[in-house]
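Why does residue order matter? Because the sequence determines the fold. Keep that principle in mind as you read this record.
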Amino acid sequence: MNITKRFILVWTALIAAVGLGASAAAEEVERNFAGSAQLDYLAVPSTIRARGLTFDGFTTELALKLAVDFTEHFSANIKVCYGCHGFETAMAYVDLRVADELNFRVGRMNPAFGDFPLRHDPANHRANSKPLPYDMGRMLRRQEWNMSILPAPYVDNGLEVNGTHWFGDDLQMDYAAYVVSGLKGSNDAFDLDYIQSRSGSLYYVDNNSEPAFGGRAAFTYNFTDYSNLTLGLSGMYGNYDPSGELSYFIGGIDLYLRLDALVLRGEYLLRRTEFAVGSEPEKRFRYEFDPERNFFIKDGFYVEAEYPMADWLELFYRFDGMRRVGNVAITSALSSNSGILRHTLGSNLVVTRGLRIKLSAEHWDFSDFDDEIAIHTGVVGNF
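Structure:
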């Protein structure tokens, strides 16, 4: 019997034991099942056939989550999501809470980074699409850009220590620190390969025997019962190639402000990624190769505002952008300094509790390509 099968059998036995223990004290067990689903149609009227630019047409996003509190200090969460990548296990972890300030999370999880990943499920944000720094598959020119800075949700295996502490009644601190398998790519890579990180056919395991690590710290101040401010800082570092020689660093800052019904958000992300030089860099890169610049920088931001005009109507506006600075492959359509800016205006029509119609229009301004117009129409429900 190989190691993988033994590992599965051990964990199955442990889960079964926990289940038997929980059955013996069923009155103490609390279960919560929740989920959301969104069907969105993306049209790009500025291009006759947009399939070469993005995943246009219909796309479904689904999230199903089961949380079980076995005791006051021990719980488990399992979440399955569905999108353009198919079904995937987005969560499968246990929490051991020693105190509010100290919690141990073990398993497959969303490592803490930034504000948007906390609300990436389609029912938890007003726009049809994700902010550019976190976009996964529906950004225009996604292949040329190799998607975003940190496509959300970022799912990985590892250990996270997190907690919350209150300073008086109004100031709250949240923190998280983790070690995970890390993002993946090839030995001869120009950039990260998100298919390797998300594909079960390539195994959900560490590809270089070196864990990545990171963390987040956030401070929230409550001005009143109806207004509060949150400031967060995040970071992540690791090597992504099998040889463990190409590194990446991702840093971010996020800001959230609620003023009664008005909600304002903003984030800035930066990723520094090393790339393979190869034996003949003069044939590999478009621009003259500088041995001291074997990396590129990809950074981006978004700011957005949400306001409910009525019980049945919510409006939002988002301005976001992304930039890539550094040498590119000789076949790349990007330049050494490429950028995107996007304006998004939209609304949510509340049909009934838990059911909304999402409408939005986007203007894309590319430095290396023609500008584009995108229109989203979607229906989202949560339960």
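Residues 3-18, 20-25 have pLDDT under 50 and may be disordered.
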